[in-house]
Amino acid sequence: MSFKEKIKGIGGNASYEAKARVLREQLEAKIPAGLKLPPAILEDPPLDITRIPETCGLLTVQELAITELDATAVCQKIAAGELTAVEAVTAFGKRAAIAHQLTACLMDFFLDEGIKQAQQLDEYFQKEGKVIGPLHGLPISVKSHYPLKGTVGCGGFLVNMEISTEDCDMTSILRSLGAVFYVKTNQPQSVMHLESKSSYGRVLNPHNTNLTAGGSSGGESALVAMKGSCMGVGTDGGGSIRCPSAHCGIYGIRPSSRTTPTHGNLWYQHGQDGVFASTGPMCRSGRDMRLFLEAVLGANPSLRDPDVLPIPLKVPHLTQKKLRVGIMMHDGVVMPHPPTIRALNLVKEKLEASSEVEVVDYIPYDHDRGYSLIRELYYEDGGATVRRLLEEGGEDMHPLTEWVISPPHVKNHDAAQVWKLRHQRDDYRREYSDHWWSQNVDVIVCPPFQGTASPHDTTKYWSYTAIWNLLDYPGAVFPTGLVADPTVDIYQESPRPMSAADEYNISLYDAAIFKGAPVSLQTVSRRFNDGLVLAAQDVIERILQS
Amino acid sequence: MSFKEKIKGIGGNASYEAKARVLREQLEAKIPAGLKLPPAILEDPPLDITRIPETCGLLTVQELAITELDATAVCQKIAAGELTAVEAVTAFGKRAAIAHQLTACLMDFFLDEGIKQAQQLDEYFQKEGKVIGPLHGLPISVKSHYPLKGTVGCGGFLVNMEISTEDCDMTSILRSLGAVFYVKTNQPQSVMHLESKSSYGRVLNPHNTNLTAGGSSGGESALVAMKGSCMGVGTDGGGSIRCPSAHCGIYGIRPSSRTTPTHGNLWYQHGQDGVFASTGPMCRSGRDMRLFLEAVLGANPSLRDPDVLPIPLKVPHLTQKKLRVGIMMHDGVVMPHPPTIRALNLVKEKLEASSEVEVVDYIPYDHDRGYSLIRELYYEDGGATVRRLLEEGGEDMHPLTEWVISPPHVKNHDAAQVWKLRHQRDDYRREYSDHWWSQNVDVIVCPPFQGTASPHDTTKYWSYTAIWNLLDYPGAVFPTGLVADPTVDIYQESPRPMSAADEYNISLYDAAIFKGAPVSLQTVSRRFNDGLVLAAQDVIERILQS
């Protein structure tokens, strides 16, 4: 019986909740007894759980030290013979098990296989005296809808879960570069929420478990923030790398679409090509984003996938001319919450004080229209496919799934209506391009979200990331080092809503709720200027921290 | 009254034929009396009319000499001060007027404006002592659905004709590079026939007027073959540059889509993004294709159009390794007519005798499936838009328009069916990519069509070009120097049809009909290897002519 049949058959006519419980128990059973947290910790954890791996006593001092490293450091140490691949994956794997018990960040756990893979790499290194590739021995966590041979894969619903029989392009390439796999991470139903609740449970934000870790790559963001991984792989069709990275205080980039491999990913609307999801890294340093992209693009993914564009990553040296940075305080539709405004003001102040950059106010161009367009583009069939898949799997619809396929934004289209919609998309892109040039900026710094991480089940405005998906502008996020602070992050005067969405966002704000949430910002540039985004973000961060 | 209103109003409730007659008379009236051919020539022209410009007495010896030049030579002579822009456009413009009277290749004629533009360029050159751009003074003919300010533009139907109020991206860029405009060329109803009959008449093949000049850029191919232009601009969504170029014995390349500018072109299904039409040159030498592409890409079209991919043209030096050339004799569905098979055998023999290349037999991969897919992709609305536009314009449907929107290939789709179709497209592309690598070739040489140019109104199989549109593989065509010869191009034995389409193609063959038709071949490589196509075709041609 295939896993698919097994999943469909769980409990016969059992309720969805009963089926989901079986899945969660199957996963829990994969975590060795020696890595189980004591009930005392699980029963009453603090809101901020990021320190538990250090205090729970399950990791050695050496393991804790390894998990403090970023991916670049891990690769360097392994290549220098100072660390083995087995040590690396063991440390991150153990910490991942702890992270999962606290945040529900995983969908599969297979540390034993990871250790076997690592042993082979260590043997190769011993024998050949060199690494097999630029990611030799690096443990990489993988979002569930990337197939990885022999592990649980999920295309967003119960009905399209599988034990994958082969790698997708991305995991195959990462494997060839020397990466070691040990976990698959959680993602929401439909893979189209900016939160992450699935049959495997709800992913919690490690900095404040009352808040979401973001989505749809929320398993990754929680895991990386818990330091159960130093390099995760996410996908982003509306913010699914940037939002969770921002919410959890880590780094992530959504590359220009079709520059990185996506072929073979599990998905339920193949051929829906009105907007493309990108694949990219989620990690703990700016340099790690570059490490990942240079390694993956260096493997020439366009040679195996004719849909991949052979556009190299060019990271410019920003010394010859003054970088022009636009600051976008808000999108003209929804005002970010006070912590994000505080971070923007700080960045602006710091950049203005620097002689290295030129700062201008960036004016957004009709983001409301763009966001409506992309919402309509996501489900041109009016959500019929989603409803069918839920029914076929006997799966309850999550309220955020219902929201994402709801009219008036989403409606069924015939072919001529599909063309019309895509023509509107093309017009908007052209107009935006003209607008961009009129603003005289190289990059912009803007919110990645209308605030820090949200309370669970409340995320209903994606425009701060999704607008760049529609335009296909690359965007990266970075933690500012600030966290939401109820003593300072309060509205100075009663806010006046700019829109219904703004009114909703204001209603969500209560300074106390967001306590401790990381405040992140986003760096964006024009399509295919991915290298400029990375280089400029480095400069901006350096000035901000100076 | 706008031109659009005027067109719609011609003759009130007049028949389509009456409206079309008015358009043709308006165009005829633009040709000066001094450039009218004597009735004796027009009444009884020979089948091969390519020599008439030389013998009719309307062009001076110097003008005839200028029109023998290719575009590279024209640019070089102007840049060297050996030729003025006014002389160039005058010579080509006069010859274009003659060409039009014999082939119906134009939709607009405005030599006076071209001369004015040329005068300004000559003055610039005089004053500054340098050219304004790489195409300084080059007369370029433009297919009708490229808007060019102040001239007739046509999106394929009577109802979407216009006097354009601004340039599209391509003509704007060419203008900025120094090009001079003087004619717009004819194209078929719907811009989706591989022939060219419109309200402005039927374009004839200059080498044998019983045959089509090809389409949809058939006005260009006839004009360039008549030497009324040395550089034309066409579009190709299913063969519309390569087929007419092949039929008329000239050069043309369909670049990988979205690498050259298309924004602003007149079209009636904007947003239909299942396959993209490319824009490219039609000309009289291999080096002219390169001149055009290097000049246009050098203007960075992606900076104004966010849909253009910033992928540079890299023309490799093919000296370091042996070029692997696959010969595809047929596509497994329709066997080319004897003249084309003769040319393929000759190329194969010559290449095999050369030490410079390695020759292998290229096996096509399921072209029948691919061709069915692209036919379905062209009109995902089942042709409803086409029918509406014809009705709105009171325009009769041409039989080839009816054919192109006919079931079973064409049917109406809802959004989920559009996605499914595009997923099938993506699967085919991936499988084809794997297949390509299994064949171990750098480029292939294949027929550009299932024979030479066809008798009028018979062209119903596009797969020799359209398959590469579906795959987005760049393809160029070149004349072999052979022409159809009834004394040798006969079936050696009674052909056995491979398919219904083959049976139809065999039924069209009567050696006598095709007499004098140029025999051309096509060079194809993998997506984005446009520069390799150009470089390899140069090598292949050199070996063929040696």
Which features characterize this protein?
homodimer; 546 residues; alpha/beta; eleven-stranded mixed sheet; two-stranded antiparallel sheet; 15 strands; hydrolase (chains A, B); Amidase_dom (chains A, B); AS_sf (chains A, B); Amidase_CS (chains A, B); amidase activity (chains A, B)
Taking all Cα atoms into account, the compactness measure Rg of chain A is 22 Å
Summarize model confidence as the mean pLDDT of chain A.
97
* Overall spatial form of chain A: globular
The strand count of chain A comes to 15
Main beta sheet strand tally, sense and closure of chain A: 11 strands, mixed
Helical residue percent of chain A? 40-55%
Distance between the termini of chain A: 59 Å
Query: What topology, given as strand order, has the largest sheet of chain A?
Result: 1-5-2-8-10-9-14-15-13-11-12
Question: Which two protein chains have the largest interface (Cβ within 8 Å of the partner's Cβ), and how many residues from each?
Answer: A-B, 45 and 45 residues
Briefly summarize what is shown.
Chain A is an alpha/beta fold and 546 residues long.
Give your account of this protein's structure.
The structure is a homodimer of 546-residue chains. Chain A is an alpha/beta fold. Chain A contains 20 helices and 15 strands. In chain A, the strands form 3 sheets. Chain A has an 11-stranded mixed beta sheet with strand order 1-5-2-8-10-9-14-15-13-11-12, with helices on both faces. The first copy, chain A, has a two-stranded antiparallel ribbon with strand order 3-4. In chain A, helix 7 runs antiparallel to helix 8. Chain A is globular. Chain A starts with a helix and ends with a helix. In chain A, 58% of the residues are buried.
